[in-house]
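Recap quiz, item 2
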Amino acid sequence: MKEVKIAILADSSSQLLSQALEGYGLEAGISFRVFESDYDQIELQINDPDSELYRSESEYVVIFNSVHKLQQKFFNCPMEERNRFADACIEKIRVDLDTMFSRMKTRIIFLNFPFHNDSLFGNFSNSLDFSWTYQLRKLNFELMNLSISHTNFSIADVAQLSSHAGDKETFDPRNYIYGDIIYTLDFYALIAKSITEMILVRTGKFKKCLILDLDNTVWGGIIGDDGMENIQLGDLGNGKAFNDLQRWARELKERGIILAVCSKNTEHIAKEPFEKHPDMVLKLDDIAVFVANWENKADNIRYIQSVLNIGFDSMVFLDDNPFERGIVKTYLPEITVPELPEDPCEYMPFLRAMNLFETASYSKEDAQRTRQYQEESVRESLRRSFGSESEYLSNLDMTAEIRNFDAFSIPRVAQLSQRSNQFNLRTVRYSEDDLLQIAGSRDYCSFSVSLKDKFGDYGLIAVIVLRQTAPEELFIENWLMSCRVLKRGVENLTLNTIVEAGKKIGAKKIIGSYIPTAKNGMVKDHYEKLGFEPAGENLWELYTHSFVNRENYITINSN
Amino acid sequence: MSTSNTLEQVNVIFRDVLDNDSLVITPETRADDVEEWDSLSHIQLIVNIEKHFKVKFLVNEIREWKNVGEMIDCINRKLPA
């Protein structure tokens, strides 16, 4: 089982949080090794260069300040300084962050604060800049700004969890008085679940696709029986509930989640509302793969998976029918299938509470994803019209841009390194900070490849990190590629570029290595296929002097 | 509900929370007698007992318990007759 080291720094009892974290970790197949600092030692742990925190080498540091202690601090503050309370806290946190990042390579998860009223001014506290209400909300707000400016500083949104759970389910005043345990047991579990989700998405486990059933999921009623004018949408019947769900799906699509349809229907009847119904939020353009037929849904989802080429575990399937859900769950156990409530009014509250689409990053290219998959299906039909693979490839008019890591490419490279699981030789995950260091290091030589063809822009699709391990050796620390460009000859182009880079620094040997994971079996023979010779278990080498450039149909666009 | 019946149910909760399947508690059992029964698991025991019996203890009641027997008496007083 994968091991992840986490340190918790807390100013109140944190054992329940760490217990719950370990539990959720096991459930997700990760062994969390939690280091808990002694009670109320945050300052000491951060400021002592030789503290247990720094020796723990934790990949994540969870900072958990209790809102009760914060409130005491606030009340101990002289009246005339209170309007600067949040600013002073942020300044302090900023200094702590600098200290920590200078001493360890880690990601900090900071728990923001649930709202906790002081009942001093009532509603009027909103109009006083020195009130607790004002300063507490400002602090949560400024924490967001801090996480925008520091990529390795993330917020666990405890305020959001608490607002959903409610005050009574958040705080346990008796356990606080009796044992300095500020939250209810269930609320510690909620926080732990949320932190686990934040960590999971950074190991590549997150959702990329939402598959929708149609009848009684996307609209009310059965299109084949009721006809287009009678399905419930907009003001008709429970239409609002379905429109809410559609709006959510469309927003997800805008931010890069691929939408697919899987419905038991006759295709042209199922498509009609998407084309003609005035109250439909979703249009055909929003759907990357549309499957409506009378086959079994598990098979149809297998088909959707084959078009999109993403893991089943990155898919969510929404269907109102428990029978269909059951079939999909039985045959495709990796897919997430929410047990939608019977009442459509409850669909959205239920789905919002599930937090299905946690993510660790966002880039503008995410929003282009649906278009890219649609382009892909056009390519697919072109491919079928050609006799040979090379004829097809030369007809695509592919051009590539190869560039060293720079301010433009680093966020996208970091993201691809987190997303990519299958075509990933050593599954090294890089943060933006890692990449900045690599870009500035003389031991490394690294580049990314972006690809275009006549149908569209694939964006940045391959990443190579090369390290000079000996004067005449270049080691491929990682080679990863988006599965969307398989069988396009990008591997050949990339290897040519690697060898060229090797020759430039006088390397005689290129060394490739493969670290197997549950998901990257497809590249097991990658180096062998490219003409490398075996040099040990999962280790390969290539001599640059005898290398002949490998054929491909991609023009390098140098600008 | 009889005292012995309450004790049986509480024993199940103790085994579950303290993760000790062979634990047998009696009215005379005190926290010092059970290795896993520390201040943290004490709170987990209380919350689980409250959920199970649908009762709520006052902080002063909790502070007064000397052994399992007093805890059981307190639960029984709160249960509907």
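The CA atoms of residues 19 and 192 of chain A lie 9 Å apart.
Residues 2-202 of chain A form a domain with the Rossmann fold fold (CATH 3.40.50.1110).
End of item.
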